[in-house]
Design goal:
Elements lengths: L4 E4 L5 E12 L2 E2 L5 E2 L2 E11 L4 E4 L3 E5 L2 E5 L1 E5 L4 E5 L3 E3 L7
Antiparallel strand pairs: 1-2, 2-5, 3-4, 5-6, 5-7, 6-9, 7-8, 8-11, 9-10
């Protein structure tokens, strides 16, 4: 995660990132040898909650996964359940052949 500024609670279990906040997971091959594409979240504000593995923002967000691209007015990402909820005006472009 990178940003211009960050604010954490005492134990580091919650961190808020302000200004050009980005979360990046580089592409890799999983245990079955399947390619997992690069994943990136971009927003002016991201709230990372470590205990529940969630990332939340009430601000506009951009999600890049390989060649796929989504934008929304707000987002909640639940890493444990692998669910992303996009809110407001949502626009997505999914590129054929970018699936796993």
């Amino acid at each position: 995660v990178t940003a211009q500024r960050a604010l954490s609670n005492g134990d580091g279990s919650e961190v808020q990132f302000f200004g050009d906040a980005r979360v990046v997971r580089e592409g890799f091959q999983d245990a079955a040898g399947q390619a997992v594409p690069r994943f990136e979240l971009r927003s002016d504000f991201l709230h990372v909650i470590q205990d529940t593995e969630r990332i939340v923002t009430p601000k506009p967000v951009e999600i890049l996964r390989g060649a796929d691209r989504f934008t929304a007015d707000a987002m909640e990402y639940d890493n444990l359940n692998r669910v992303v909820e996009l809110r407001g005006r949502v626009v997505g472009v999914m590129v054929p052949g970018n699936r796993r």
